[in-house]
Protein 1
Amino acid sequence: DGGITQSPKYLFRKEGQNVTLSCEQNLNHDAMYWYRQDPGQGLRLIYYSQIVNDFQKGDIAEGYSVSREKKESFPLTVTSAQKNPTAFYLCASSMQTGANVLTFGAGSRLTVL
Amino acid sequence: AQSVTQLDSQVPVFEEAPVELRCNYSSSVSVYLFWYVQYPNQGLQLLLKYLSGSTLVESINGFEAEFNKSQTSFHLRKPSVHISDTAEYFCAVGERNTGFQKLVFGTGTRLLVSP
């Protein structure tokens, strides 16, 4: 079945450590996204990518980095510069053109100890 | 830039009662509108969407939403809810223009259905 796989589902990190969240899709979608979800704040866009080797900052990119070396993969690194990284992270993808119907992964919950 | 407002953070209802989850948006251009549902510790799933045509759209599990351009609203309704409808619901808007565009999400409404 086509879909988006995020890993790990749960991750604990000590302060000062970088951590990378994986996102893989087999939907042949061109565009991929990373959202951060905090209680009462909805979803906020971190980064998005329309094509391979290209990506743009979203609304809250500070302290995060991404890469898009393959169409299927869009990993997110939460760096030590991110001041409040504890959150639920959602990866999504969509076709490039037309109405932007997003397909989401199951999410990764990051907790900083 | 577009924005979305979901005024109700939480809506408690009894099973088999009707429910309405409110969504208002702001945009300077015409829009696409979406409702997504999220069950605990899961990703979001598309519930229904308005792209064009009939302003009343329906989902397979009995939800419906009506695009009201004059009131800039896209409220979600269900005439009789089930316990299994307990979840968080997000309204989202995308601007209808050429090329790539991003969705903006509301802050979500938690629907709590009790027996």
Protein 2
Amino acid sequence: AQKVTQAQTEISVVEKEDVTLDCVYETRDTTYYLFWYKQPPSGELVFLIRRNSFDEQNEISGRYSWNFQKSTSSFNFTITASQVVDSAVYFCALSRRPQAGTALIFGKGTTLSVSS
Amino acid sequence: DAGVIQSPRHEVTEMGQEVTLRCKPISGHDYLFWYRQTMMRGLELLIYFNNNVPIDDSGMPEDRFSAKMPNASFSTLKIQPSEPRDSAVYFCASQGGYEQYFGPGTRLTVT
């Protein structure tokens, strides 16, 4: 069975702090894909990143970075110098073969609150 | 390009009434997904279509729920009769490559 665990339910930080959101996944597949989505207070789900199981290179996009480690089945997300606009619920998700349209298995989400 | 469009954005109805949620996927995308988000269960898949054909409806809670995709640009999710436990945010998502792109959701409240 596939499962995604986001153990941190809520995190509160002050602006400019760095924050890491944890994601641990379970799957028996050798090929799989991991995703992060952001859900701001307005409610929509915004795609942030996709990673496949064969690519363990870390990725950086502006203030966002992702650390994928197969050895620990983790795909953590770090926001550097957080801003109030980063306040949202962040979801980690897993998919077997997204190119074939398989469903996303979501974690429960981590609510990030950034105060000024 | 327009994103995924859902209507209505908010729906309040009384128990026992029929509810129809609508979705227009991104043009050219060949997969369409319906998800439901609740506090208790989080985000869960209800059903998905490939080229308008239902592929997996194992997430549909019960016979009160039905979904159709009559053409590539339109899908509906119907609940009949609705119950208070159906209150949730319903998301439609479409996919043309590796990523699913979500609509803004329909917040359904059944009183």
